[in-house]
Amino acid sequence: MIVETALTKYLKRNFGNNLSFNEFADVTPPTPARDANYLMYIHIPFCEELCPYCSFNRYVFNKDLAEEYFRALNLEIQMYKDLGFDFKSVYVGGGTPTVMPLEINSLLTSLKKKFSVREISLETNPNHLNDDIVQILVDSGVNRLSVGVQSFDDSMLMQMSRFHKYGSGREIKERLARVLGRFDTLNVDMIFNFPTQTIEMLQNDLATIKDLRSDQVTFYPLMVSDITKSELARRFGSISYRQEKLFYNEIYDSLSKGYTIGTAWCFSRKKSMIDEYIVDYDEYVGVGSGSFGYINGQCLANTFSVPDYIALIKAGKFPLMARKEFSPKERARYYFMMRLFGSSLDIDAAEKVFSGKFQKLLWKEILGFRLFGSLQRNGKILRLTRKGLYLWVIMMREFFTGVNNFREICRATSRT
Asked: pTM of the full predicted structure?
C-alpha cells in the first residue's frame, strides 16, 4: 500500500501537468498528416437521467435540443472532411448515444460515405437493448457494442440509481444474453472498488460474466472527480483504495482463464476493438460538445456547453475551447503510458516516432519501473509484469481522474 500511495503522488505530479491547458482562445483546428491513421471520437452528451458518479459531459435528454445537436454534429464532421482528414475507425460515446437511434443511424451512414471507416464502436445502456434499437445499430454497421452495466448486484444498482432505470441484475443479464452474437463484439462495462462493494459481490459479478460468456468485459476502477466525491460519499461512504488491489487481483485471476488481456483492465475472448481507443490509435479527433482530440502533439478540447457548441457550428467556426501543446518529454510520457497500458511497447517503433530520442527522454522512468519489477524487456519489447498490470491500473486511474477534474471545471465554466 505504501508503494501504491507513493506512485499515486508521483503520477499526479508528473502526469497531471499533461492536462494543464495553456491556450483558451482562438484555438486553431489541426491539420492532417499524409497517410496518418486516425480515429474519430463522437460525443453524444444526452442521458435520460444523470448517474451521480459520472464526470463525462452530459445533459438530461431534451428531444428538441438533441435534434439540433445532431444537425450541428454532422456539420462539424464535414468541417474535418473539408480539412482533408480521413478516419478508419469511429468510437461513439456519451452520455447515452442511443437516446436517438434513428439519428445515430443517419450519422453513421453518412460517416461511412465520407470516410474510409472500417470499424465502429458504440456505447449504450441496458434499457436500450430492445429489438428495434439493436436492429438499427446492426444496420448502421456497429461492430462493437459496449453496454454500461457497472454491477449485477441489485443493492449496488440501487445505490447507483440504476435499478429503477435498467432493472435487476438478472434482467440485465437476460437482455445481454439476447444480444450476444448480433455484433462482432459485445462488451460489458463494469466498475470495481465502490466503498460498499464486498469481495463476494465482485465474485458474483465475475461469475455472472463468465456464465454469460460475453465477448469482452472492461472492469474500470472507480474514478472520481473532485466535484463528484461528496455525492458519492453521501451515497456509498468515503472513497478508499485499500481494497482496490485485492479486487483487481480477483478480477485478473478469474478472467485470465478464458480471456486475453487487451489492456490492464479490459479482457477479451478474441481480438477486437477496446474502450481505450487511445491505446490503439496514436492520434484521434474529437467531435461533439466536451470531446477531446490528440493531434500533432497537442490535446484539443471542444466547448462543454451544448448551446455554445451549436451556435459556433452555425457560425461556421470550430467549437474548440482549449489547447495543450505537449513538450517532447510529455509526448513521450503519454506514449509510454498508453502503449504499456495495452501491456507492451515496441522500443524500435517508439524510437521511430520520437526520432531516436525516446529512451533518452524516459530513461529514468523505464529504469525505475524495471527496477521495481513492473516491466520486463524481451529484446526490443517492453512488457508489463503481473505486478506492473496493477501499477498501470493506478496510473490510468490517476490520468483519467485528472481528465474528469478538467471536465468538471469546463462544465462548470460553460454553464455559468
From this structure: 0.91
